[in-house]
Predict the structure.
Amino acid sequence: MSAYLLRRFLYAFPILLGVNCLTFALFFLVNSPDDMARMQLGQKRVTPEAIEQWKRERGYDKPLFYNGEASGWGRFTETIFFEKSLRLFLFDFGSSDAGRDIGYDIAQRMWPSLAIAVPVLLVGLLVNLSFALFLVLFRGTYIDLGGVVLLVALLSISSLFYIIGGQYLLGKLLRLAPISGYDTGLHAWKFLVLPVIVGVLSGIGSGTRLYRTFFLEEAAKDYVRTARAKGLSERLVLFRHILGNALIPILTGVVVVLPLLFLGSLLTESFFGIPGLGSYTLDAINNQDFAIVRAMVFLGSVLYILGLVLTDLSYVLVDPRVRLH
């Protein structure tokens, strides 16, 4: 097990390095520090002195890869590539272009993101599995056909409709929950009810349809027909055999998503005024704060690879036939 984990993490390092180098090229070669300064200071009537001062204040005045004026290892460490890119591997995110500590902001904003994402995942998984099992139980009937039509309709609706519709119906008309905002501690629950409901509703169409496909695929296999031939009831076959064997593809999607819950949702957090990492990233894009965007891209890559490793490990728990070598 330990050797397998070591190999997976060693495989992940070149991937992270490639993503890091590609991100660095996009931000510093395609879009030079001079271009960043002009976008921040304004394209018109900006002086070269103002550009140099902006770069100096943010550490963008150093050479990209090699500093010939330094000595020893400083020729490689006193560069933009080392300070703004390689330090990310130590989770040293540095400061934003506005001067804020990115690591501190991430530590503060991750909790509102998790407060929304975790309930949406758990409640959505329970609802989607239950609805999918219900449709499979009545497969081939008008109940199944009507359910599929409803799922396709829900899948065709944009998530913005659920957000705006939920704010108008539950927030403005019925006044069951605040339209937007956030609070700390136990008082935050009233601000989370509406985003969680909207998140669960917006995912029913795609999630239930996917799980229904998994269940129908298992229901057509030989072991299911054998179980029915032994006289087992349809409900027992469904919950004991079909559900258990369909957990592997379901678990793949769920475990991969787990680390990415940390990053939050761009649309949900922005529309509901939740100070999470999703709105943090979107605000950084709007404000052209490239340091935050680079940090969030790297963090997303790390979490995604972690999700893939967790997925492989979870196979052993679900299917004893799987062994890690």
